[in-house]
Amino acid sequence: MDFTFDDELECLKSSYSADEVIYWNCNGARILKFTLKDAACITFEIPEAYPHIPPQISLASSDLFNAEKSTIEEEIRNYATKIVGSPMIMDLVIKLQQILEEKKMKETLKSKTLMLRTQDYFLAVIQIDHMRNKNKYSKLLTSWVSELDLHGALIFCQRWIFLILQNSKKNIKEFITRLKIVPIDVDSSGKPCKEKMCKILYEGTGFNSFSSFSTEELKTLNDLEDFMTAQNLENIYKEIMRPALSI
């Protein structure tokens, strides 16, 4: 025996509460309305040839713009054409719930990402005078950065060397302490020596500009300015770093 719309309606009524699903007949048109937990309502007008012809679909939600509603309605209609010929109302309702849940998750992720980008993080800008043993010096800096979960960049630009660190204030302070007390380079005679000539140009808050740590080899001061601008640190460059670029 064929599964009729009346059979499907009974299944829907047993699966959803009276507050969630309402059915009525209006001038011969069979209307089925679902109210979902996220304040969205979807209404189906069931044609005589259903399920061989998909129902007409109308979506209402105070949380959606008209363009968003139209896009979601079209997505559900397209989905209905793929399952035409069999009872589909519950499938369409579940599809709508999935679409709305995915939309909510994307918006939450976007909000968190924006918050992280605009949140103030502790930032330090250090100028290093020179590196006699560049490979050893850079390798040790990178290992400390990894150990202390810091982000930023080690920047070589002509004769200038800058180290930008970002994340936890406590860990940046620990990094700076190590930089001053741990032998990290070699002196003119090749003996291990501590960093005595670095300058802390800035310690304070700044945008969350880095998601990792990198080493940058820049050819010109314009390249340096462009790099800082790309990290949303243009003010740090203009007010902190550029004055240190005495030639």
TrEMBL record:
Gene Ontology CC annotation, any one: cytoplasm
UniProt xrefs under InterPro entries: RWD_dom (IPR006575), RWDD3 (IPR038840), UBQ-conjugating_enzyme/RWD (IPR016135)
Keyword Cytoplasm tagged: yes
Chief location category: cytoplasm
Cell compartment(s), UniProt: Cytoplasm; Nucleus
Keywords for this protein: Cytoplasm, Nucleus
Protein name per Swiss-Prot or TrEMBL: RWD domain-containing protein 3
Natural source organism: Stegodyphus mimosarum
